[in-house]
Each structure stands twice: as C-alpha cells, then as structure tokens.
C-alpha cells in the first residue's frame, strides 16, 4: 500500500526485482534446516517428499531459484494445492484436518514464491496468498500474511476513478420505493447509553435497540468509501455471494478480487453480488485499525479475541432473508442505509423455518412479500423495523430474527459476541 | 491359430513421476510399458499403480517396479494402504511396506475368504458379504437387496453394477459424481436414472468422478460421451481437474481422447484419482 512517492506505481526493472526477492526471502527461515514443516496432525506419506522437494528447490540455488527451479517449484505448489484441496473438500469443513489446511497453505506459499522468483507479475502471487489465508491454516508464523503485505506494496496502485470498462449503470425500470417505517413499529434509538443502562434495559431482557454516537470516532466514518477499498484492498481476493438471496437455487459463491467485485457488482450492478459475512479484517489487518469493538461487548462472557467481526459490502438491493444467529450481534453501519425488520424468537413458530439442517435458521417467508396462503400464521408475528443510517449501531439479541435489505451501496460491520 | 489379441493400456492425466515431485511426461496419452504378454489389469492409486502381468502382480511408482510375492491375484491400493486378495484370504498392508514389496510384515487387516466356487468370483472391491475399502475399516457389508456384479469406489462414493446392467451410486455427491442430477449425497444405493434403459457392462470410479461403458448404441444423457468404439461407448461424468476425463482442462492444451476401441467390456476403462486408463486391443 505504501508505494514510492508520485507516479503510477513502484519502479520496475531488475534492481527492484532483486530487491523484492531479498525482501521476500527475508520472511523465510535463513537456512533450509530452519524450515520445519511442523504439521498439526497426520497427512498421507506421499506429501512429505513433495514438501521437502519444494524446500530443496527454494534453498538449493545460491540466493534465488533459477528459471528451471522456479518452474519446478510452481508445479509442486500446484500439486500440493490440488491434492490438499481434495482433502479440504471431502466432507464437512469442521472435520477437515488442520494439517491438510497447512499443506494447502504451503502449496500457496511455494506457488507464490515461484511467481516472485521467476520475476512474473505479482497479482497471481497475491491471489495465491489470499487463497492460503482464506482456505489454509497458519504456517511459518503466519508467513502468508507477511508475504502478501510485501507483495501488495509492490503492485501498481488502483485506479481512483470508476472502472474503464462499461460504467453505465443498469437503469431500473421500477426501483422499489424506500420502505416507510410506521412509528409503532419503530425501534428505540439511544444515544451513548451507559453500560449499565444498556445491560439492564436491552441485553438482559434481550430487546433490540439502535445505538447512536458510539461510532463517531471510528476512522472508518471519515476514511471509508468504495474508492478507498479499491485502493487499499483492490488486488485482494475475497468470497462474493452471487444471486438475490442465499435461499435461491441459483445462489452461489465466487472468489474474485475486491476491484473486480466493485467493478462488476457495485459500479455496474447487472446482477446482485454481495461481499457478505467475510472476516475481511483478519485477512487485511490494516483495516481493523479503522474500527473498534463496541464497549458493550465487555458485558459478554467471551474474550475479545473470540468476537467474530464480519464485513458486509454490497450494492443497493442485497437481501438477507429472515434468519437468526447463535450469538449477540452489533451491526455497525458505515455508509449507505439498510432497511431492517426484526422479530422476537418467541414468534419462531409463526415464521416457518426451513426443514433442512443447513437452512434451519432461515424462514421460508419473504418478509416484504409474504405468501399468507402458504404461511398463514405469519400474520401473527410482530415486527419492529428501522432504517439503519451511517453512524448507527443496531443491537440484535441472540436468536432474534432479522431481515435486511440495503437501500444504497452499503458497508456494514457486524460483531458476533457471546 | 491366431494369437490372442494383446492388451495394452493407455493412461491420461497425472503421472507417478509427478507424484514424487519430478517432472512428468505430460498428461497423456502414454502407453504403459510391458513384457510380451502385456498387462492384463491395472489398479491405480495416486502415487503408484499395481499391474497384473503374465508373471503376477507388480507395484509401479516413480522409477520403481517391484514384483509382489506370488499367489496374490487382485489389488486395491490407496495412499495409506494396499489391499490384496488371494484364494483364501484378503489382507491390507501400509503403503510404505507395499511399495517395498515387504508383505511378510504383519498385515494391518486380514479376512479369511470362503473357498472358491465353480464360478469366478466378482472382482475387488467386492468380497463375499460386502466389499473391501483400501483404508480402515477395510470391509463394509453391502446394503441390503443389491446384487452386485461389479463395484467401484471413489473417495467419497460407491458405484455398483447390478445383475441386469443397471448402475447404482451412493455416498458423497457434491461433485456430481453420483449421476443423480443433483449435488446431494445418498446414504443408500440409488439407481442412476440417467443411464436407465441402457445396460452397462462396466462401472468405474475415480476420486470424484465416475465412468461406465455400455454394451449397446449411443445414448446422450447428462454425461459426456468421450470415445466411441465398435463394442460400446465410453461415458464420463464428474470432476476434470487433471484431465482425467480426457477433455480439455486446465492441465491440457487442446488434447482430446483419440477414438480408441475400448475392446471387450471387462476392464476396458479404469479410473485412478487423477488418471484414466483405457485398455486397447492390439492385433
């Protein structure tokens, strides 16, 4: 991110190339014996020879792998990733052995190093680091996070203006009107309540509330914009949800860079894409400095490290169907507005949750267009609503049903705590 | 009298050299080396393959060929173990011992088999009462009611060829390997409807893909017809990451499978985790 002053980007040429390799090489143990694989568990016999072989190629030649060694290292990275990828995709994620995720991370590391050693463009290497961060497990003291910082700093800076390709926004035939929140449905709004007041009136009775004023000093309120993310994170690979809602059959997830996401789904909006429920602040730790953990989280039982922080970045029109989560939630709105409807867990039997295990936390009913013939008891459910504005934080008690639709290009940060 | 046609094998996809970290010969097709009697059967794992020559079973990995002791007739290899079947017993050894050909060491598993009847028993993984797996627990009973002529194992799924040439698939389904038209898993054997009405001769399974060969004319279904021969057509379906479907993939430039005659049905196509072996009859 810190590019040399002025101009389009970092200097190119062999001197810079050599300097980059030196900087990258310094992230690794000095000698081959220092790179112990230390896998947290068992992997199959065929893997260790491949890891050793890759290590040998890396340390073999004086200082830096030559063309042939880099090509062989690249191929080994491919094989390690492909083999461990199958293990990562066999069975449920929670049952995947950590050792296999580490092998995958090594595959990404060797692949990225091969790109750098061969002097090739850095974007694929950055993508490999991100794949290792997203799907792998930490190796060599989080080397991938350190490596991606170095590489990101050497990439050309992102364009400041909108994307060159087709910036015509899709013209909506009939944009849905901004929903009206009836006064009787409106959630209470409180400005900077004391810890005790919040605990006694909202946390303990498990009542939702909109908190104001608590984000005022967060740097994100001044710094964050679509362009800011393009600059700071444009080259980074993130998971994007495609399709209007996750209950639809055509819904899918796709990995793409933040720039591509912004170009295809924020600026152009041909179809819905949502960078949703992603721990972006673990992947790009610098962004974490722009936000804070709400003080009220200290009222919880867990450690601060156990709080899950997710980013929610998308165009106007993203929809999260009515669902419940197993933890308390602070939903902080940074830019854009979100229309939110809330329903108490006491009304659960009127909300017709899906039967299947995977969607059991999600209602079958479309909150803004309920089929009352199919779901007659839905009319008995009581809802509260709000339009969450930038600078406001919504407290969603654990298991409280919530429906969310963005009214603008929107960025929210959620904090899941217990 | 004319000599019996010699069986040769072509392989597409990942090589055992690459599995050892060496440069490979490319994704294929390549011909397996053999002596004058040819190679009768192949049983591929990821980093090694067991072949049956005229002289018995042989383990092949990068740069290594080891004859196994006589008496073993069939193999079921994996990256953790090798299962072998003999006339009276089936056993499993850890991969390392198997690659060294050291089968006198204690087996990881052993199961006595009933004496052979007049008819040749169905091949591995089928065993009397169920089927073998190349990793613990090494044996599973076959769910009720399915009369299996042949059985093939993927990483997460099982294919069975029934008595009338119908195919069943069950197990993990997230890569489309079950051929039921969804990505759902199945706990019990379920008929592959897409192939109904076309009797199959052979079923085969790779890690996350499946293949079968019919005995009759072409049938366009939700699978891809890869090669067409005199006696039947080759169908493949599932994941194509390493070119194992012999279709253009990220590993292949523009190589397509040659129109090879798959030969008589039995053993005509065999899938390894990242490979497909096709048997050709040479005059």
Provide a short characterization of the protein structure.
Chain A has 418 residues and is an alpha+beta fold. Chain A has helices at residues 14-25, 47-60, 67-88, 98-117, 123-135, 143-154, 195-203, 220-223, 226-233, 258-267, 280-283, 285-288, and strands at 189-191, 209-212, 237-242, 252-257, 273-278, 308-314, 319-323, 328-335, 338-343, 383-388, 392-396, 401-406, 410-417.
Structural summary, described in words:
The complex is a heterodimer of chains A (418) and B (283). Chain A has a nine-stranded mixed β-sheet. In chain A, strands 7-12-9-10 form a four-stranded antiparallel β-sheet, with no helix packed on it. Chain A is built from twelve helices and 13 strands. Chain A has 418 residues and is an alpha+beta fold. In chain A, helix 2 runs antiparallel to helix 3 and helix 2 packs parallel to helix 4. Chain B has 283 residues and is mainly beta. In chain B, strand 11 and strand 12 form a beta hairpin. At the A-B interface, helix 2 and helix 3 of A face loops of B.
Task: Report strand % of chain A.
Answer: 15-25%
Name the largest protein-protein interface in this structure: A-B, 17 and 21 residues
Radius of gyration of chain B: 18 Å
Helix content range of the residues of chain A, please?
25-40%
Task: Briefly note the structural class of the backbone of chain B.
Answer: mainly beta
Q: Tell me the series of helices and strands of chain A, N- to C-terminal.
A: HHHHHHEHEHHEEHEHHEEEEEEEE
Number of strands of chain B: 23
The number of helical elements of chain B comes to 2
Decide which structural class fits the backbone of chain A: alpha+beta
Mean of the pLDDT scores of chain A?
90
| First-last Cα distance of chain A | 35 Å
Strand ordering within the main sheet of chain A:
1-2-11-8-13-6-5-3-4
- How far apart the termini of chain B lie comes to 13 Å
Shape of chain A: elongated
Please give the largest β-sheet of chain A. 9 strands, mixed
Cofactor (chain A): Fe(2+)
GO molecular function (chain A): chromatin binding; histone H3K36 demethylase activity; metal ion binding
Domain JmjC (chain A): 273-418
Subcellular location (chain A): Nucleus
């Amino acid at each position: 991110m810190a590019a040399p002053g002025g101009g389009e980007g970092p200097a190119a040429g062999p001197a810079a190339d050599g300097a980059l390799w030196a900087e990258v090489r310094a992230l690794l143990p000095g000698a081959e014996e220092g790179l112990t694989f230390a896998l947290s568990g068992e992997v199959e016999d065929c893997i260790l020879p491949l890891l050793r072989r890759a290590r040998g190629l890396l340390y073999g030649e004086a200082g830096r792998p030559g063309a042939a060694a880099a090509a062989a290292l690249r191929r080994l990275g491919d094989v390690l990733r492909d083999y461990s990828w199958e293990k990562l995709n066999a069975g449920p994620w929670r049952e995947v052995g950590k050792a296999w995720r580490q092998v995958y991370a090594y595959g990404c590391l060797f692949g990225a190093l091969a790109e750098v050693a061969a002097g090739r463009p850095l974007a694929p290497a950055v993508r490999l680091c991100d794949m290792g961060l997203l799907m792998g497990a930490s190796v060599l003291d989080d080397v991938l996070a350190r490596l991606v910082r170095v590489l990101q700093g050497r990439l050309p800076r992102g364009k400041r203006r909108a994307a060159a390709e087709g910036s015509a926004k899709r013209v909506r035939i009939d944009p849905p009107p901004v929903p009206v929140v009836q006064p009787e449905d409106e959630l209470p709004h409180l400005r900077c309540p004391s810890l005790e007041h919040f605990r006694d009136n909202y946390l303990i009775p498990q009542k939702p509330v909109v908190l104001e004023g608590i984000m005022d000093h967060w740097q994100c309120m001044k710094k964050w914009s679509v362009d800011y993310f393009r600059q700071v994170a444009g080259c980074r690979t993130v998971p994007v949800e495609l399709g209007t809602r996750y209950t639809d059959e055509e819904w899918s997830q796709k990995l793409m860079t933040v720039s591509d996401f912004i170009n295809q789904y924020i600026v152009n909006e041909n179809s819905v894409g949502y960078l949703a429920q992603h721990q972006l602040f673990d992947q790009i730790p610098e962004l974490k400095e722009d936000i804070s953990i709400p003080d009220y989280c200290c009222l919880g039982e867990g450690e601060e490290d156990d709080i899950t922080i997710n980013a929610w970045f998308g165009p106007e029109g993203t929809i999260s169907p009515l669902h419940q989560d197993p933890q308390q939630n602070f939903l902080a709105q940074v830019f854009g507005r979100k229309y939110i409807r809330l329903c108490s867990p006491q009304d659960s039997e009127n909300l017709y949750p899906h039967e299947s295990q995977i969607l059991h936390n999600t209602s079958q009913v479309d909150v803004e267009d309920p089929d009352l013939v199919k779901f007659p008891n839905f009319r008995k459910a009581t809802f509260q609503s709000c339009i969450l504005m930038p600078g406001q934080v919504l407290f969603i008690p654990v298991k409280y049903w919530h429906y969310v639709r963005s009214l603008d290009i929107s960025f929210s940060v959620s904090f899941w705590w217990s | 009298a004319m000599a019996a046609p010699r069986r040769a094998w072509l392989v597409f996809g990942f090589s055992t050299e690459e599995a050892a970290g060496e440069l490979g010969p490319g994704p294929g097709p390549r011909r397996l080396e053999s002596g004058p009697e040819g190679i009768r059967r192949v049983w591929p794992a990821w980093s090694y393959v067991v072949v049956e020559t005229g002289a018995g079973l042989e383990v092949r990995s990068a740069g290594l060929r080891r004859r196994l002791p006589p008496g073993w007739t069939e193999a079921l290899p994996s990256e953790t173990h090798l299962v072998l079947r003999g006339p009276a017993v089936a056993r499993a050894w850890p991969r390392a011992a198997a690659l060294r050909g050291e089968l006198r060491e204690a087996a990881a598993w052993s199961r006595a088999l009933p004496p052979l009847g007049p008819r040749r028993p169905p091949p591995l993984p089928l065993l009397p009462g169920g089927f073998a797996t190349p990793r613990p627990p090494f044996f599973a009973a076959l769910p009720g009611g399915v009369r299996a002529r042949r059985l093939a194992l993927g990483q997460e799924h099982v294919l069975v060829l029934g008595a009338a040439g119908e195919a069943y698939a069950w197990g993990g389904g997230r890569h489309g390997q079950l051929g039921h038209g969804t990505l759902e898993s199945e706990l019990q054997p379920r008929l592959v409807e897409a192939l109904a009405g076309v009797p199959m001769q052979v079923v085969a399974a790779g890690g996350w893909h499946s293949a079968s060969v019919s005995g009759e004319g072409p049938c366009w279904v939700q699978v891809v017809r890869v090669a067409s021969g005199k006696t039947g057509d080759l169908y493949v379906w599932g994941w194509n990451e390493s070119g194992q479907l012999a279709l253009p993939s990220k590993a292949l430039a523009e190589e397509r499978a040659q129109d090879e005659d798959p030969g008589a049905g039995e053993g005509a196509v065999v899938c390894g985790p990242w490979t497909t072996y096709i048997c050709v009859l040479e005059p």
